[in-house]
Amino acid sequence: MMTATTTATALSATAAAQATPAAEPATACFFVVAAAEVGTMARVLEIFALRSLLPSRWHSQRVRGRGTDEVHIDVQLDMLAPDEAEKLARRLRQLVEVRQVLVSMKAVAD
């Protein structure tokens, strides 16, 4: 049995869902800073491959600095929802070699 309060709550939740547009898939851009080790790039790529995701862009560069030897990896994936991009970023951050992961979304122009 639904009360007036339950009905009002259900209606306001429905109205809020209709008023808030769903996050549209866009291009997810990942920037990964990791230790320059032999298997680092393979482990980063594996995060995407395990989910059958093929990057539309991959650029990596070895960067040597004072006391550091890093690899910077720029990865882009087309047609990815923002929540999925965040899940991938969290998984990348769990890799031992990874020092930092930045993620941003770029929308497709109409």
Instruction: Compute the separation of the termini in Å.
Output: 46 Å
| Alpha plus pi helix count | 3
As laid out across the biggest beta sheet, the strand order is 2-3-1-4
Shape: elongated
Question: What name is given to the CATH topology?
Answer: Alpha-Beta Plaits
How many structural units, i.e. domains? 1
Our estimate of the beta-strand percent is: 35-45%
CATH superfamily: ACT domain
Give a quick set of tags describing it.
single chain; 110 residues; alpha+beta; 3 helices; disordered N terminus; ACT domain-containing protein; signal
How would you sum up this structure, described in words?
With 110 residues, the protein is α+β, with helices and mostly antiparallel strands. It has a single domain (23-106), classed as Alpha-Beta Plaits (2-Layer Sandwich). Helices cover 35% and strands 37% of the residues. The chain contains three helices and four strands; from the N terminus they run H-E-H-E-E-H-E. It has a four-stranded antiparallel β-sheet with strand order 2-3-1-4, with helices on one face. The radius of gyration is 20 Å and the shape is elongated.
